[in-house]
Amino acid sequence: MARITGSNGARTAAAIRRAALKLIYRQGFAAMNLRDLAAEVGIQPSSLYNHIPGKQALLSDMMREHMEVLLDSTEAALAAAGPALMDRLRAFIGHHVLYHMERRQEVYIANFELRALDPASRARIVALRNGYEARLMGLLEEGVALGELEVADIRVTAFAMLAMLTGICTWYRPGGRLGKAELVQLHTELALNGIRRR
């Protein structure tokens, strides 16, 4: 890649993130080296350190940003859904599916490169992930308390739902037989059919 013309700090940092996302997704974190990253961005390898402390910090920062965006956008979707439990649960599910369709590379890296983080960084990402899972568990608990849902085990049900809903990032491709809205609807009904009180 040619050097970024008229590059400045913010633009170069963003280009580094985009290139890292592409390379880690394609080759894996362990195989990506900083020389390749610099070449992809169009800067000298030594210049990378003006923008990132190192490879490990870059991965940790990318994962943290991914989880924070997911958490914040989920809260916005829930707030927009209104007070009714089933509306909020549908919003959570729909947002999760759409987010994971639109950010397949980020999701893949967040799920499969967690093991590459140092223990302190891993603990921070796991805490954010736990907060997200707890949000779904809270909705399920509320639904059971209201008599709208029938759930034998909140924790297991939340994990099973998230595994099913997240799986879309492994097979979804734009331009397929079903559009995003149809896939969101299908996944929402699949998830709710297993827990809705009959």
From TrEMBL:
Residues 33-52 bind DNA. Residues 10-70 form the HTH tetR-type domain. Signal peptide: none annotated. One of its GO terms (molecular function) is transcription cis-regulatory region binding. The keyword DNA-binding applies. Keywords: DNA-binding, Transcription, Transcription regulation. This is TetR/AcrR family transcriptional regulator. It comes from Roseicella aquatilis.
